[in-house]
Write a structure and sequence with these properties.
Elements (H helix, E strand, L loop, with lengths): L1 H5 L9 E3 L14 E5 L3 E6 L5 E6 L29 E6 L6 E4 L8 E2 L6 E6 L10 E10 L2 E10 L5 E10 L10 H7 L1 E6 L6 E6 L7 E6 L6 E5 L17 E7 L1 H4 L15 E3 L4 E10 L6 H7 L4 E5 L3 E3 L4 E6 L4 E7 L4 E6 L8 E7 L3 E9 L4 E9 L2 H12 L4 E2 L11 E2 L2 E2 L4 E2 L13 H17 L3 H15 L41 H4 L5 H20 L9 H15 L15 H12 L3 H19 L15 H11 L3 H14 L17 H5 L8 E2 L2 H16 L4 H16 L11 E2 L6 E2 L6 H11 L2 E6 L3 E5 L1 E5 L4 E5 L6 E4 L4 E7 L1 E8 L4 E7 L14 E7 L9 E2 L4 E3 L2 E4 L6 E6 L1
Parallel strand pairs: 20-26, 34-38
Antiparallel strand pairs: 1-2, 2-3, 3-4, 5-6, 5-11, 7-8, 8-9, 9-10, 10-18, 11-16, 11-17, 12-13, 13-14, 14-18, 15-16, 19-21, 21-24, 22-25, 23-24, 25-26, 27-28, 29-30, 31-32, 32-33, 34-35, 36-37, 37-40, 38-39, 39-42, 40-41, 41-46, 42-45, 43-46, 44-45
Length: about 900
């Protein structure tokens, strides 16, 4: 690939000029463009500003344009940022005040310079900068070794030394969905995410189809990605900047000290802030280059080919403190040193796991809860940062979560006029109190994602790690509040039980500090509407979770039989899909639970109910099979429908639709060496509807992480040599662990803006995120082609004569043995150790009644093991080597002296 690029140098053309009629603006569209060809791109610059107008791929049928050239006429005013702009803050050394420069603020025609050789275009930016600026800046568009580069030559034109406290390159790519159809959005638009890794940093721009070559923006020379800043623009324009259809743009910051001293002074930034000092007459060049990777899966291979530092973390960068992580580094220059901030937060030791000398391996151990930054310095001076988040041991995170939800978030007020008591209700961590009132009726109203989130998480937690005390409270909630208040006797589900209508509840004290005039302060009729299918799935998940508890831990559930819970779940599915509920034909958040429900109905031999649900799901999937983009929702573009579409497309063997959904996810769920962005599916508007701090921003580990991980990890189990799916999927499943603080409170998401960098105060819609985690988290054992035997969610303690793995994931209920395609599930009990004999193709399991280290976890009376082969590998299904009874598809394994051991053979 590289050779092809280098052999194509005949592409360089003399600039051509084109003029188009445009509406008035300061960008200069009316004066035409400069056009060039490179091996990978057709390039157009706006002639007057020399900013990027079009960057269109060559060599493939799509001719994909990464720049929003089709709507540039609506983005030509002052303050609209474009690729090629520059912002900075500088001061005379010794002074305290920073002066600012911004090429977009008051745009003027730049002074074009004569060019020759590899320089395609160049300009002096002085005319479009403030008078008296401390810096002279020349911008160059250059072709170097076949790659397009954007360079800024920054010169100190003063007689005194100048400190550059911030300097950044705004990035504009086509993430504008406004006014587009679903097809146009998916075929024309892209999303971009950073790896904020200093010299190793880069930005990946992925077309939404998920199948087109992604663009990589890489540093040139010493141009670190130190900071990542959201760019404010006018939000009142026709394209709707910083809205659900246009998230907004970001800036690659080479230095950040001037922001750290001001707007960011109350936060700990991702990287240590820096500045640069230029002596009189001195020039420093900052730059970016633009490279195409063959595919999303090959981004890291392209980085290696480009001789960029590459880091691969196993299982990722969210690290429970009892689970050793692995970090593998690939860079031509050897590692000189490692350090961590805060001091002592991590420790490391070299390992010999890597199979080739290209990779250097380390075993990482987390010691201090929360964020930490590992800094790798290479012998050539290159600096790379890898960002970790350390949690408590994963089983303790679940225990803390369950305790918090059923105590601190427990709402028990028999006088409540809205029928909310008793319940697990939304919580505000910033005031440490439940949310009794909010203008968004659903948040205190126990429905929608942001109101059901807390009781949903508490219910599903009992499936994942049952606790007798918590089960008792959840049964109380289901009997008194879920059934009869949230859910009506006919199976319909209210959009909220809380409402704003003072005349109906004259004794209730609605806070006067709240503005009740917005559309979301529903009256009773609006709250009691039952036309939103998304609300039904939360109810289904609660019933299904308690069915699982009652079926497998029969002493815990006292209020109802397992049959009752199962029937309630079926009733809710039937009502939701009966033709009276809106959005029922869309893919729904966490609806994979319905597929689990269908499997259980079949296991229990409840054929009539299974047939009903299967027929309803088939009708929905038939609709999706006829659509190229069946990912619709309440929003113009969304990342919520893909999970359900994938679930039923795979169930009904619709491979085309399933792969379309999978590719869509890969376009918005990246893997990078940063706990916040690794496996973090794109969400950016939900804080408006469910957060305490309401704004449009790239959210970190909102529920998109856990839910979109379901298709990725499921597809990995079907194709267990695709380790990319495992890495991204497991990262998404791990995301919900980071949301849980040391006291057990789970935040809806982390705020990514550089001036905030904190967890939101509301519990909000965390629940669906946890559902994804609970449905698929486990220990995944693989023989990696580069790194040998590894356990995602566990620890490989021996590789000879057998591969022995300790399970350390949050559930201890699932193990996947990739070489055998063996998916091992415990309906009851907890895995402690797995021993794989690769020659005999046997697996020996050590099972205990409950997860070690959690005193509140209920003990299983017997282990109940379900074994399947999820891969089309011809090996068949493992089965016990001794005679065991089966019940509803589960092998029943008795404990002896608190432990059970069973060997599985083919």
């Amino acid at each position: 690939m590289r050779a092809l690029h280098l052999s194509a140098l005949a592409f360089l053309l003399v600039p051509a000029y084109f003029c188009v009629a445009q509406s008035s603006g300061t960008l200069g569209l009316q004066d035409g463009f400069l056009s060039f060809d490179t091996p990978s791109f057709s390039v157009q610059l706006v002639k007057d500003s020399q900013t990027l107008y079009s960057l269109t791929t060559k060599g493939n049928a799509s001719a994909f344009d990464f720049i929003p050239s089709d709507v540039m006429s609506q983005r030509q005013a002052n303050g609209n940022y474009h690729l090629g702009d520059l912002t900075f803050r500088a001061r005379v050394v010794g002074s305290s005040a920073w002066t600012s420069g911004d090429t977009s603020a008051k745009r003027q025609v730049v002074a074009a310079l004569n060019v020759s050789g590899s320089t395609l275009a160049a300009a002096d930016l002085t005319p479009t900068l403030p008078n008296g600026t401390l810096l002279s800046i020349t911008r160059r568009w250059v072709l170097s070794d076949g790659d397009l580069q954007l360079l800024f030559d920054v010169k100190n034109s003063q007689q005194q030394a100048i400190e550059i406290g911030a300097i950044g390159a705004p990035l504009e790519f086509n993430n504008i969905f406004t006014g587009r159809t679903a097809a146009q959005t998916n075929e024309l638009c892209s999303l971009f995410d950073p790896y904020i890794g200093q010299d190793a940093g880069y930005v990946q721009v992925t077309p939404l189809l998920g199948t087109l070559p992604p663009l990589l923006v890489l540093p040139v020379g010493k141009s670190p990605l130190e900071g990542w800043r959201f760019l404010p623009e006018d939000t009142s324009t026709s394209l709707g900047y910083q809205s659900q259809t246009f998230e907004g743009l970001y800036e690659w910051q080479f230095h950040t000290l001037a922001y750290a001293e001001n707007e960011w002074k109350n936060v700990t930034p991702w990287n240590a802030p820096s500045s640069a000092i230029l002596q009189p007459g001195e020039t420093r060049t900052y730059g970016l280059r633009f490279v195409l990777a063959p595919s999303i899966r090959e981004i890291e291979s392209e980085l290696v080919a480009a001789k960029r530092p590459v880091a691969v973390g196993i299982p990722g960068y969210i690290l429970p403190s009892d689970q050793p992580g692995k970090l593998f580094l690939n860079f031509p220059s050897p590692v000189k040193s490692l350090s961590v901030s805060p001091a002592g937060a991590l420790s490391w030791a070299k390992n010999s796991d890597a199979k080739t000398q290209e990779w250097t391996g380390y075993t990482i151990t987390g010691h201090a809860w929360g964020r930490s930054r590992l800094t790798i310095t290479y012998a050539d001076g290159t600096v790379q940062t890898v960002h970790y988040y350390v949690t408590k041991p994963a089983v303790e995170v679940l225990s803390d979560l369950g305790t918090f939800l059923t105590t601190e978030s427990w709402f028990d007020d028999p006088t409540d006029p809205f029928g909310r008591s008793p319940s697990v209700i939304s919580y505000d961590r910033e005031v440490n109190a439940v949310v009794r009132d909010d203008p968004r009726a659903w948040i205190p109203g126990l429905s929608d994602e942001a109101g059901a989130g807390s009781w949903l998480a508490a219910s599903v937690k009992q499936f994942a790690q049952p606790s007798a005390a918590e089960v008792a409270k959840m049964e109380e909630f289901i009997n008194e509040t879920l059934w009869g208040s949230i859910q009506n006797a006919d199976g319909t589900v209210k959009k909220s039980v809380y409402f704003y209508q003072p005349n109906l509840v004259p004794e209730y004290d609605y806070p006067s500090s709240i503005f009740w005039g917005n559309w979301w302060s529903w009256n009773q009729a609006a709250s009691f509407a039952t036309d939103r299918a998304y609300d039904y799935v939360h109810v289904i998940a609660a019933y299904w979770s308690l069915y699982r508890v009652a079926r497998n831990y029969p002493d815990l559930a006292q209020a109802h039989t397992w049959e009752w819970y199962l029937n309630q779940a079926v009733l809710t599915v039937a009502t939701m899909t009966g033709g009276r509920v809106g959005y029922a034909d869309d893919g729904l958040m966490e609806e994979t639970v319905i597929r689990y429900l269908l499997d259980d109905l079949k296991r229990e031999g409840l054929t009539a109910n299974a047939t009903l649900i299967e027929s309803r799901m088939r009708a929905r999937e038939t609709i999706w099979a006829g659509e190229r983009y069946p990912f619709g929702s309440e929003m113009a573009w969304d990342s919520t429908g893909q999970e359900g579409v994938y679930a039923w497309a795979t169930y009904f063997n619709d491979t085309t639709t399933a792969i379309n959904a999978l590719n869509s996810i890969l376009a918005y769920q990246p893997t990078v060496p940063h706990w916040g962005y690794n496996g973090n599916a794109r969400r950016y508007w939900d804080n408006v509807y469910g957060g305490k701090l309401q704004r449009i921003e790239r959210q970190i580990h909102h529920y998109g992480s856990g839910l979109n991980a379901i298709p990725l990890i499921s597809q990995f189990r079907a194709t267990p040599t695709d380790d990319y799916l495992l890495r991204v999927g497991f990262a998404g499943l791990s995301g919900p662990l980071s949301n849980v603080d040391q006291g057990g409170f789970a935040s809806a998401s982390f705020h990514s803006f550089a001036d905030t960098l904190k967890w939101d105060g509301y519990s909000g819609d965390y629940g669906p995120n946890f559902v994804g985690h609970a449905l698929e988290m486990g220990t995944y054992v693989v023989d990696h082609p580069d790194f040998g035997w590894q356990a995602f969610g566990g620890d490989v303690v021996a590789t000879a004569p057998t591969v022995r793995v300790r399970t350390l994931d949050s559930l201890r209920r699932r193990v996947f043995i990739a070489p055998l395609g063996a998916w091992l599930n415990l309906d009851a009990g907890a895995f402690e150790e797995v021993d794989l004999d690769t020659e005999k193709e046997t697996v020996t399991l050590t099972i205990v009644p409950s997860a070690p280290g959690v005193s509140s976890a209920a003990s299983a009376p017997v282990a109940r093991l379900v074994v399947t082969n999820t891969a089309n590998n011809g090996l068949g299904v493992l089965k016990p080597s001794v005679n065991l009874t089966q019940d509803a598809g589960a092998w029943v394994i008795p404990f002896k002296n608190g432990v059970a051991s069973v060997t599985l053979v083919l």
